[in-house]
């Protein structure tokens, strides 16, 4: 069952959710796979180059979760338009034509050009040749960021209300080598997977351990909280003391696609099957935690 809200999200729900017998206290979201570029974006970068900012194919890689009884939420808008894995206060005031009326976080992501509204791509290419208006940014928050966060909150609250606990996977991808302006570690060669729970503050450590212990015997190199610990979505929704566990999973793009053409490679099917098997294992594991 699919629920569509223009410019915000696509929600794939298992049949008869949330009463289906096979459902589990597990929720997936893919905030950076959106490919619908709003007409008011008006970036100076041509569409093909802009697409390199997407977490290309990530929503499809995890899509078998739905048949296993797990809901999957995905943003339809691109992260380069507005990044829903940022706080609404992660705004670069230098991008605006007037003072921002709300709080400003001064996040390190802003210095990298990767705040709520991106200033540039990973290679430093500017997205705009103009200042943005306060109303433009407000519209993006109201039309895209807020509905996405509200939808994810509802899913997590529903699962928590039914089971007493919930486990949330925040699905991402990363380039094989960190770009010059992508992180504070440019040029870093990434492992196959990076699991982030903000040093155990957004999920019980057993969650990351279970995922790592599943992936490593299958030949994957897995790191935990290095170099990515998780950002806004796991920070907002992960409260392990309340039985709310949020884990960010970054997948190295070299495992499944050509990073220049963005086309899937021959290894795509193997990775998708491994993620299906991981999801099935997590369904069993999470259900066992609440019985």
Task: Give a written overview of the molecule.
The chain is α/β, with parallel strands linked by helices. Strands 1-2-4-3-5-8-6-7 form an eight-stranded mixed β-sheet, with helices on both faces. The protein has seven helices and eight strands. The chain has one domain (9-289): Zn-dependent exopeptidases (Aminopeptidase), CATH 3.40.630. The protein is globular, with a radius of gyration of 18 Å.
Topology:
Layout: E1 2-5, E2 9-12, E3 26-30, H1 47-50, H2 58-61, E4 72-75, H3 108-111, H4 134-163, E5 166-174, E6 193-196, H5 205-215, E7 222-224, H6 232-237, E8 244-252, H7 268-289
Parallel strand pairs: 3-4, 3-5, 5-8, 6-7
Antiparallel strand pairs: 1-2, 2-4, 6-8
CATH superfamily: Zn-dependent exopeptidases
The main sheet orders its strands as 1-2-4-3-5-8-6-7
CATH architecture assignment = 3-Layer(aba) Sandwich
Question: Tell me about the biggest sheet?
Answer: 8 strands, mixed
What is the third-level CATH name, the topology?
A: Aminopeptidase
Proportion in β-strands: 5-15%
Q: What's the total count of β strands? A: 8
First-residue to last-residue Cα separation: 27 Å
Average of per-residue pLDDT values: 94
Multimerization state = single chain
Q: Helical proportion?
A: 25-40%
Output the helix-strand order: EEEHHEHHEEHEHEH
Pfam family, one: FGase
Protein name: N-formylglutamate amidohydrolase
InterPro entries: N-FG_amidohydro
Keywords: Hydrolase
What are its keywords?
single chain; about 290 residues; alpha/beta; Aminopeptidase; 8-stranded mixed β-sheet; 7 helices; 8 strands; about 30% helix; globular; N-formylglutamate amidohydrolase; hydrolase; N-FG_amidohydro; hydrolase activity
């Amino acid at each position: 069952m699919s629920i569509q809200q223009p410019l915000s999200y696509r929600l794939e729900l298992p049949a008869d959710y949330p009463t289906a017998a096979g459902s589990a206290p597990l929720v997936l979201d893919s905030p950076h796979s959106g490919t619908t570029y709003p007409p008011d974006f008006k970036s100076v970068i041509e569409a093909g180059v802009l697409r390199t900012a997407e977490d290309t194919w990530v929503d499809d890689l995890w899509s078998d979760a739905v048949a296993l009884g797990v809901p999957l939420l995905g943003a339809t808008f691109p992260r380069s338009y507005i990044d829903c894995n940022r706080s609404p206060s992660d705004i670069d005031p230098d991008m605006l034509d007037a003072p921002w009326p709300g709080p400003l976080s001064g996040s390190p992501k802003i210095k990298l050009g990767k705040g709520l509204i991106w200033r540039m791509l990973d290679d430093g290419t500017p997205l705009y040749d103009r200042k943005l208006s306060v109303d433009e940014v407000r519209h993006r928050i109201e039309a895209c960021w807020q509905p996405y966060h509200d939808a994810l909150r509802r899913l997590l609250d529903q699962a928590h209300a039914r089971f007493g606990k919930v486990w949330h996977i925040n699905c991402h991808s990363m380039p094989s080598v960190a770009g010059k302006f992508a992180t504070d570690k440019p040029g870093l060669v990434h492992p196959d997977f990076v699991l982030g729970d903000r040093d155990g503050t957004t999920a019980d450590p057993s969650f990351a351990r279970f995922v790592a212990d599943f992936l490593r015997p299958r030949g994957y190199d897995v790191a935990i909280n290095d170099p990515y610990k998780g950002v806004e979505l796991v920070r907002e929704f992960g409260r392990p003391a309340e039985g709310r566990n949020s884990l960010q999973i970054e997948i190295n793009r070299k495992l499944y696609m050509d990073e220049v053409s963005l086309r899937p490679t021959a290894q795509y099917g193997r990775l998708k099957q491994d993620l299906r098997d991981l999801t099935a294992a997590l369904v069993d594991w999470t259900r066992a935690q609440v019985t």
